[in-house]
Write a structure and sequence with these properties.
The protein has 405 residues and is α/β, with parallel strands linked by helices. The protein has helices at 11-14, 32-49, 52-66, 76-82, 101-114, 128-140, 150-155, 157-165, 180-193, 211-234, 249-256, 283-286, 324-332, 342-356, 362-378, 395-402; strands at residues 2-3, 6-7, 21-22, 25-26, 72-74, 84-91, 119-123, 143-149, 169-173, 198-200, 240-244, 264-272, 288-292, 295-299, 335-341, 380-387. The chain folds into two domains: 22-63 and 101-211, Rossmann fold; 67-99 and 220-402, Rossmann fold, CATH 3.40.50.1100. It is built from 16 helices and 16 strands. Bound molecules: pyridoxal-5'-phosphate. Residues 99, 101, 128, 204, 244-251, 316-317, 361, 363-364, 388-389 line the site of pyridoxal-5'-phosphate (PLP).
Length: 405
């Protein structure tokens, strides 16, 4: 399929290019000593991860440990309530640990093992990526250092406990505001000092090349499964697909299965409390081109051009940029990016729970809320939503802040 001059039949051969660019976005903007480490990972990725042995081992792990393939569920009661559009969800909430993040963590940790590394390193904000990586490290018998700001350590006590139970070493970062940004800096510093023994495992389709490509490819299992399952269930492709976008990994993996199809694709960012800077994290909607965390993309900046403070009710979505491939697909128009507010998200959280018996993560509830709106606009047809994770982690917070609706 050709779309605005891009041939999607051969898209994955050309995007990213050998320097890690999706059009003008992506690349690798990091100090020289880290550049060497990235080249080592890129080289290993193209040789090891494309080998039959690696692929069949990862397939076995997905089946026996992660519980893949995750099913697609038809949302009969919600569809009936909204009219004549049929809604479906891809159940990443049923992936082991309750979200999609384990898909790329298992891939990254298996690569670390094949490369002979002893340790995996990452930063975490809300703790979800830290828990997924700690799980993968336990499975493969790797050491695991998770850098986390002291403010976040206090806020995310259950996830800190999970990481420790899984045997990870949670490294407290006290510099600056002691949140995600400082944790990223500390983790990168530790990695630069010890990259021979360890591998850095990024939590989304962000960071320098090869991470946006590698994480997308590990997450593409979601899109490949979903396309096959949906066509088997219904005899056709969905008319539209929807996923939430923070860094963009669940969306990119899901979308990659449908980019070459006549399917409308929607990526949903958090509008939070509203469109004023600081009240949302909708980087593709309101941001401009810039470089942060080692890559060029579209980002939200403050008056000095630094990454702006962001907010969302979903802690997994409050990142001031999105992966470079999203910026590319945004400019191209192949994916439509739109926003959903906190209030619409909370409504969707309760609606899906009550009508379908599925408690969604607050992040995923953004996609559900958008699909509910879209269904009313479309009038007929079908929508497939990527339910990136389950909402158990969010229940206490929602009851405290919003009460039972
Ligand atoms: C982390 C997380 C997200 C956001 O990350 P992406 O890289 O944008 O997918 C979305 N949903 C859940 C459940 C998460 O844990």
């Amino acid at each position: 399929m050709n779309f605005n001059g891009i041939d999607f039949d051969t898209y994955f051969k050309h995007y990213p290019d050998e320097k890690g660019y999706f059009g003008k976005y992506g690349g690798s903007y990091i100090p020289d000593e880290l550049q060497k480490a990235m080249e080592e990972i890129t080289e290993a990725y193209f040789t090891i991860c494309k080998s039959r042995k690696f692929i069949s081992e990862l397939r076995r792990i997905r089946r026996e440990f992660q519980g893949r393939p995750t099913p697609i569920s038809y949302l009969e009661r919600l569809s009936g309530k909204l009219g004549n559009v049929q809604l479906y969800v891809k159940r990443e909430d049923l992936n082991h640990t309750g979200a999609h993040k384990l898909n790329h963590c298992m891939g990254e940790a298996l690569l670390a093992k094949y490369m002979g590394k002893k340790k995996v390193i990452a930063e975490t904000g809300a703790g979800q990526h830290g828990v997924a990586l700690a799980t993968a490290a336990a499975y493969f018998g790797l050491e695991c250092d998770i850098y986390m700001g002291s403010v976040d350590i206090k806020k995310q006590a259950p996830n800190v406990a999970r990481m420790k139970i899984l045997g990870a070493n949670v490294v407290e970062v006290t510099d600056g505001l002691a949140t995600l940004k400082e944790a990223v800096d500390a983790a990168f510093k530790a990695y630069a000092e010890d990259y021979k023994n360890c591998i850095y495992c990024i939590g989304s389709v962000v960071g320098p090349h090869p991470f946006p490509m590698m994480v997308r490819d590990f997450q593409s299992v979601v899109g490949i499964e979903a396309r096959e399952q949906f066509t088997e269930m219904t005899g056709e492709l969905p008319d539209a697909i929807v996923a939430c976008v923070g860094g963009g990994s669940n969306a990119m993996g899901f979308f990659s299965g449908f980019l070459n199809d006549p399917v409308d694709i929607y990526g949903i960012e958090p509008l939070g409390r509203g469109p004023a800077l600081g009240d949302h994290a909708a980087s593709l909607q309101y941001g401009t081109e810039g470089i942060m965390h080692g890559f060029n993309s579209i980002m939200l900046k403050d008056a000095d051009g630094n990454p702006a403070p962001v907010y969302s009710v979903a802690s997994g979505l409050d990142y001031p940029s999105s992966g470079p491939e999203h910026a590319f697909l945004h400019d191209l128009g192949r994916v439509k990016y739109d926003v959903i507010s906190d209030d619409e998200t909370i409504d969707a959280f309760f609606t899906l729970s009550r009508l379908e018996g599925i408690i969604p993560a607050i992040e995923s509830s953004h996609a559900v809320a958008y699909a509910m709106k879209l269904a009313k606009e479309m009038g007929k047809g079908s929508i497939l939503i990527n339910l990136s994770g389950r909402g158990d982690k969010d229940m206490d917070y929602i009851i405290e802040k919003y009460g039972i609706r």
